[in-house]
Amino acid sequence: MKRNIAYRYRIYPNEAQEILLQKTFGCARFIWNQMLDDIQRSYEEEHKTKYPTPAKYKKEYEWLKEVDSLALANVQLQVKQAFQRFFEDEKIGYPKFKSKHHSKKSYTTNMVNGNIRLSANTIRLPKLGSIKIKRHREAPKEWKLKSVTVRQEASGKYYVSVLYEYESQVIEHNDTNKTIGLDYAMNGLYVDDRRSSAEMPHYFRKAEKRLNKARRKLSRMYVMGVEKQSKRYYKQKKRVALLHEKVRQQRLDWLHKKSRYLVNQYDYIGIEELDMKGMSQSLHFGKSVSDNGWGMFVRMLEYKAEISGKHVIKADKLFPSSQKCHVCGALNPKTKDLSIRKWVCPVCGNEHDRDHNAAINLKKEAQRLALM
Ligand SMILES: [Zn+2]
Questions:
Q1: d(CA 84, CA 95)
Q2: What burial class does residue 318 get, using C-beta atoms within 10 Å of its C-beta: 0-12 exposed, 13-18 middle, 19+ buried?
Q3: Cα-to-centroid distance, 179 and ligand 1 (Å)
Q4: Distance of alpha carbon 323 from alpha carbon 320, whole angstroms
Q5: Residue 15 burial by Cβ neighbours in a 10 Å radius (0-12, 13-18, 19+)
Q6: Helix runs in the chain, H state only
Q7: Cα 8 to Cα 296: distance, rounded to the nearest angstrom
Q8: CA proximity to 361, closest of 332, 333, 320
Q9: Which of 58, 188, 211, 324 lies in the 20 to 30 Å Cα band around 86?
Q10: Alpha carbon distance 166, 162 (integer Å)
Q11: Among all residues, which ones are annotated catalytic?
Q12: pLDDT at 175
């Protein structure tokens, strides 16, 4: 089965490349808005949705020819998709115009006849030539490079998302010896059935603290009812954006490493299906639930497992991983109270650590489901 996967890398364009990148972002936005406008008009005048092509605008606006034509062709596809989504589901909303200051700066280009080339330190993109790149991981040789999306984040840094297509392998295992159970933990990430937890690296916690401090400072600097904030405010805003991106990148790297390790070590990974939104609302955990990256971690586990022919097995939402005694199987409803971290089984008398016991149950459940 063919699947897609994206690898994200930071790039370091030189001055001339940066100018061209900005131009390309601008042209992509321009074409998007022009197309929206024309589609609206064709609908109002002829009651038909007509999708224009970039060629139409290139005649009128010569400068569009300066940038990667594939970037503009992709805008056409994106416009079409946006309308199709809107027609299928009105809740999604009518495609919006992109403003110069508030829209994301990005464009996508495709691999055509080797026009994109990756080497150890550079990426070659149409019209731009070779740009310096930091590649912290490499895709397997047999993967096919399909497209590249270039983005500039709020901090000013540039990134590329390189999209690959690969053939997913499905290997059947009948041996569930190499199974691990992971119980979600709000602090850290998980506790496994051997009682080890995924401790976040120290540097990461430190960066997070710095970010929170910078955010608080920023909100104190904000003056209500004023259109233009102070220079110091915008400076601080930029600082927050930089720190935020650093934390995000560190978290991603860490989650990638953790998930890669687990997929390499185990054939089956048992986890529970969590309702993150419901959890953070009902327990008022808010930020900490969404921010520790569990959802992203699970997605990484899943796609890495799939590529390697391993399996992530989710226990049913109703599976009582925390309530069940892993020794005798008795249920202890008292553990529904999340503040209970340690408990004694009322039936067999074994002592349990909440997370560790749950992780063992998840491991056993994964082994059971794997053999079904
Ligand atoms: Zn028991």
A1: 10
A2: exposed
A3: 22
A4: 5
A5: exposed
A6: 15-46, 54-60, 69-88, 202-221, 231-265, 276-283, 287-291, 294-308, 354-370
A7: 15
A8: 320
A9: 58
A10: 13
A11: 183, 272, 355
A12: 80
* pLDDT (tens digit per residue) in 68-108: 999 999 999 999 999 988 888 878 888 999 988 888 899 99
Write a three-state SS string for 202-237. HHHHHHHHHHHHHHHHHHHHCCCCCCCCCHHHHHHH
Report the run of H or E that residue 84 belongs to, with start and end: helix 69-88
| Helix, strand and coil percent figures for the chain, each rounded to 5 | 45, 20, 35
Query: Which of the residues in the chain have pLDDT under 50?
Result: 286-290
Taking alpha carbons only, the member of 111, 113, 141 closest to residue 123 is: 111
- From the CA of 356, how far away is ligand 1's center (Å)? 14
Using CA of residue 69, residue 75, residue 80, residue 85, what is the dihedral sign?
positive
Output the CA 371–ligand 1 centroid distance in Å.
25
- Which tokens belong to 322? 């925390």
- 142's torsion region: left (phi>0), alpha (psi -120 to 50) or beta? alpha
Comparing CA positions, the residue from 267, 275, 89 lying closest to residue 176 is 267
Ligand 1 is an ion; residues with CB less than 5 A from it: 325, 327-328, 330, 345, 347-348
pLDDT of residue 107: 97
CA 342 to centroid of ligand 1, rounded, Å: 13
pLDDT at 166: 87
What one-character DSSP code corresponds to residue 113?
Answer: T
